[in-house]
Every structure is written in structure tokens, then in C-alpha cells.
Amino acid sequence: MSASTQGLQLRTGSRILGNWVELLSSMRFAISLLAVICIASVIGTVVKQHEPLNNYVNKFGPFWAEVFASAHLFSVYSAWWFILILAFLVASTSLCIARQTPKIFADFRAYKENMREQSLRAFANRAEAALNEAPEQAAQRMGQTLLRSGWRVKLQSRPGPQGTGWMVAAKKGRANKIGYLAAHSAIVLICVGALLDGDLMVRAQTWFNGKQVYAGSGLIANVPAQHRISASNPTFRGNLLVTEGAGADTAILVRPDGVLLQELPFSIELKKFIVEYHASGQPKLFASDIVIHDHDSGAKRSARVEVNHPVSHRGITIYQSSFSDGGSRVKLQALPLSGARAPFEVAGVIGGSAEIGLGSERFTLEFTDLRVLNVENLAAIDGAALAAPAPTDLRRAIESRLGAGNKTVTERHLRNVGPSITYKLRDAAGQAQEFHNYMLPMEVDGLRLFMFGVRDASAEEFRYLRIPADAQDSLDDFVRLRVALADAALREQAVQRFVAVAGQSGGPQMAAALRASAARTLGLFAGAEQVNTSWPRADGQPQPVRGGLPALSVFLEANVPASERERAGAVLVQVLHGTLYELMQLSRERAALPALPRSEFTQRFMAAAVISLSDSFFYHAPVALQLKDFEHVQASVFQLARAPGQNIVYLGCLLLIIGIFAMLYVRERRVWVWLAPRGEQGAQASLALSTNRKTMESDQEFELLKSQLLHRSAADTIGG
Question: Which residues of 667-694 are buried (b: 16+ CB within 10 A; e: fewer)?
Fold first, then answer.
């Protein structure tokens, strides 16, 4: 290769390198990177980070969830492009500082006293005046005046055509340039702190130290060493769950494809988790009384961790993040909602599971969560007691009663409604439904109702079945009625009793017709008879109707002319109420209990029971599990962070405040006064003021300088 070719390549490479340096150090490039960082931070704030992928699929759909996941929008702050942008921003701003710092410090020392007289006449704030004192004497006087006003002054003598002249150069507000350096240095420090406190070190452990993300399950103690990071890790942020009376010393670092376990140099023992509530039942304080056991020294340290009041130990800050169940023991009673099953009890631990058999089917009961306190809005709905709706309003009635457990249409009234249990019922095929049931009844619309919630997916809201409480504030009467409704023999007896009471005034033919009508009505309501049509689902597909008020409504639509439906519907509702009342009495007789009195409470209970029995056909579960007893065990969730970049970020924030204040509120000004000889004892003065921001204060300051230095008012001044 010839020397000329090598020289050309060197010049080309130098030019390319210079272009890259110019790009990185340009202000536009840095602002563009800052804009991308801001947009990414907004996304990271709006979109909840590090959630399971299924949650995002339910929220955004499969296509967009995959698109967002490929862009790492569900873990923005640990995304490779976010870290790369931070690194580029650090490099860009550092180059900008490196290029501007020598110029700024050179400008600190420069007074620009070599300014020519012709140049002074080009300034907006300028003035000329004739002085009755020699140039040197005037220069000394002006210099002392400016020094007393806080200006930094330099005097220079210069030979000229008329003799020796003097230049008075002064400057003030150079902290404005310090603000430029402070603001840019703050950006570098904040970005460096973010890089240090991010997951860069954790990634380095997986890249260079042989650590692997753990995607399995089981006990933490059984996780192999290749999934554990040593306690000497300089920076991390993880979660630690500690049960009351127990301790833990391994934090969990959530990764997109699993977890890593972070060993701690100490263990945290939770003595007590404390929750304090407002009068409305809403929590006002979460706190954990803990004991820190240091592994190296063996020392113990008692502390209390509260929200916004963390505790630090050996460079690791312990935050109160949230709370959870620590393995409470619960006892549930299974209430049959389909078929004539007998109630039974099942016990378990929150976080565990149990196998239950319902006839020939086997289910896995997964105990998900126990909440001892629930604050709900129980503002009463205006109106009287619940009544059975007309058949033509069945759909609207069902929609108004299937929904949130505290659905009302009036003002909010918050109240603690007691404990609740959340569980999943999984069939042999692995399909599961989630349930959320309250232990105690809550008063809604003047009735005390038990709430049993169900949903098919975690993205859905719970739909609640409302079951009225009996006179003993229990579910016993309703369960007996539901079991009796599934018994064909008891239904027949209830029909006979109803006909014996309601058909006394008619003859045998009327009694036979009433018996047939009552048997058909009760059979349709119980789901024992098949209807000839169906309602369409939301997706347009036909949905079979079997049982409840919808079955009666479909029967009327199929067999009764439209003009007769309202009257026929009212008759069917009366027949249904009468037969169900007799069925309730039969169920109590079989349980050796006295008959229900004909009272207002019984009437309201039966009216609500009709709706609940109808809604139970939409509660697609063979049983409802009611919480009967529990032994509550709390657990506290801590967030542990070793953040060496935190102090760097604080310093950067301080510099940013100083820099912005200096750039916005400190004005850099320079003053020049050229004093040329005029006659034997006089001088011709030319005054000019330069400022980096033109404001009214600058004009006022210039007027003051004219008065002090030239002894002239605005009216006597030439120029300006």
C-alpha cells in the first residue's frame, strides 16, 4: 500500500471519528436522547412493570402483548435499549462538557479589554459623554466605583492618535457559566447513578459469572447455587416475604424469564405486622416490627419499618412494600348449588391445595388468599324490598343483580364488611375458575345478603351471587331450599300443598289445571324440564337455558302470544312464589324445624331467595365454599435495595437545581468604558453594556451605570 493511500485512509478515518465526536457532543443529539428517556419513563410509569405475561395478554391481547414484549416495554428500565440510551447520553453530555469547559474557564479569566472603540458603538446599550477629568484619573474613579458595586475590574492603557487612552473592562455574573457546567454535569451524574442502580450488575453476573435465571418452583432452600447471587453483589433491588414469627435471608430478583436469588448478609425476622385503620375502615398505617440478625457479627438489631420510613443496614435499605398472607389456616363449608348434595367441610392453608370429590368428579381446591378486612361501598339503594320482576324484565333484573358485591346507584358509603376468602376450583382437565366469597352477610337494599363472587379469568371482574341470610343470619334456610328444589319428590309434595291451599274455591277440574301449571312452573324453574329455545350469548352463539327465571321467560316467549305475556307472567310468578314457599316449609319439616311464620321478613326473604335461586344457575360451580373459621397468619413484603448510585443521583439533583437556578436567575454582564484624551485635562468616554439576556433590569442597570460612571442622565447622554 502506498504512502499516499495510507494517508488518505488516515484522513478519512479521522474525519469519520470527528463526525461521530461532533454528533455525540451536539446539543440536539443530547436533547433527542433526553426526549426518548422521558417517553420511556412515561411508559414505565403507566404500564405496570414485571407482571406475568398472561396479565399483559389479558389486557392488550395476544398480538399487542407480543409486540410490546419484543420492545421490552414491560421491563423498560432494564431494557437493553434503555441502558444503551443512558450510556450514549452519558457519553454525549461528557463530550459536550469536555469541549466547553476549557472555553468557559478561559472566559472566566478574560476581561476582553482589547475591545475597540468602534465595536462599542455596535451594542444596544451604549452611551458617550465628555468628562472634565484626565483619562487615567477617570479610569481609576470608574474602576473603584465598579469594584464597590461587586464588579470584577481590569484597567488597560493604550496609546492612540490623540495620546494615551484607558480601557475600563468589568464583568459580573460569571456564575451563569458555572450553571451550564453544573446542569450538564448533573445529567451525567444522574445517568451514571441510574446505570449503577439498574440491573447492569445483575446482568453481568449472568454474562460473566455463570449465574442462570431460575424458572422452576419449589422451596427457596432447594434452589441450586447457579441461581444464587452472593451477598457481595454491589447493587440490586429485590423483594423479600417474611411470615410472622419466621425469618428470611434471601431476596428474589424478578427477571423477564424467571427469578434470581440474592443472598443477604443478614436475615430479617418479623415479630409483628401492624395495620391501623381509619374510622371508615380504610388502612392508615402499615408497619413491621423486625429483628435484623447480622451473619458476620451475630449482632441483633430491633427496628420498625413503615411506609416512607425505611431502615438501612450494611448499605442495604429495607422498605415496607406490601403485605400478604403468611399461610393462614382456613376451614370452609361446601354449600350445594346443584344437585341434592349434603354440605361438607374442607380445611387447608393459604397457598396450599386440597383434593375434593363431588360425585364422580374430582376437583383441586387451591387456597389463594384470605383477607381479614374488606372495605366496601354499601350505600343503600332507594326503594322498597326486593321483589320478583316481571318476566319481560328478567334480563335487566339479572344484570342488575349479577355484578359487584357492593353494586349500588347512590352515594358512596364505605364500611368494613369483614373477612373474605379467595380460592380456585380446578377440574381434571386443568380448567379453573376463581371465587371470592365473603364470610359475613352485608346489608344491601334493607336485606342482609351473603356475597359469592366468581370469574373465569383474572382479567375479568368478579360477578356476585347474592344469597339472603335467614332469621339466624345464616345460609341454612337457603341451602335447604336449594337442595329441596333439586328433589323431584319434594317438588311434587310442594305442588300438592300449594294446590290444596290455592285451589279450594275451584272444582276438581280447576285444581287439576292448577296442579299441572304449578308442576310445570316449578319444574322449569328447577331446571328439570327442557325449554325449546335459547338466548344468544355475547358472541352470537346460542346459549341453552335451563332453570331459573330465564327458563320461564323463554317458555312464555315460545308459548304465549305477546299480548297475553304480561298477565301470564304475573300468574306464573305468583304460582312460583307459592310453590317455593311450600317447598321451604317442607325442607324445614324434614330438618325437624318449625314452619316459617307468615311475616314481612319471610316475604322479603322469599322474594330475594327467588332471585338468588335463579342466579345460582349462572354460578357455574357445583358448590359454593363459605368461610367458617380461620387462624390468621400475616406476612410482610419488603423491598431491599443496595443502591450505591443513590448518593450520586442526589448529588446530580443538587447540581441540577444549582445549574438551573444559575442559568435562569444569574445574568452575565460585561461593561466597557473607553476613555480617549480630549484636550489637555478632559476625556471622551464611550460606555457599552453587554448581557446574555435582555431584560428590564438590564436597562435599569445601564441607566444606573451611566449615572455613576459618566455623571449623566438619560437626557444628557449621547446614544443609548
Answer: bbbbbbbbbbbbeeebbbbbbbbbbeee
Task: Fill in the DSSP letter of residue 379.
Answer: P
Give the integer Cα–Cα distance in Å for 272 and 150: 62
Backbone angles phi, psi at 533, to 5 degrees: -140, 180
**Cβ-Cβ contacts under 8 Å for 606 (sequence gap 6 or more):** 577, 580, 581, 584
Residue type, 565: R
- The DSSP bridge pattern shows strands 258-277 and 228-229 to be parallel
Give Rg (Cα) of the chain. 42
Main-chain phi, psi angles of 104, to 5 degrees:
-65, -45
User: In Å, how far from its chain's centre is CA 308?
Assistant: 17
In the chain, the N- to C-terminal Cα span, in Å, equals 66
* Residues contacting 5, CB < 8 A, separation 6+: none
| Three-state secondary structure call for residue 444 | strand
Contacts of 99 (CB under 8 A, 6+ apart): 25
276 contact partners, CB below 8 Å, separation of at least 6: 283, 284, 285
The predicted-structure confidence for 373-420, as pLDDT tens digits, reads as follows 777 766 533 333 333 333 344 445 445 555 545 454 445 566 778 899
CA 89 from centroid of its chain's CA atoms: 28
Mention every residue, 6+ apart, whose C-beta is less than 8 A from residue 654: 186
Specify the DSSP element, H or E, that contains 518. Answer: helix 508-526
Cβ(223)–Cβ(214) below 8 Å? yes
Which residues have CB under 8 Å from 610's CB, separation 6+?
388, 549, 576, 577, 580
> Is the pTM value of this prediction over 0.70?
no
Cell numbers for 189, please give them: 451524574
The parts of the chain modelled with pLDDT lower than 70 are 1-27, 279-282, 338-341, 377-414, 503-507, 530-545, 712-720
353, 364 contact by CB (below 8 A): yes
Strand pairing class (300-306; 414-416): unpaired
C-alpha cell belonging to residue 15: 474525519
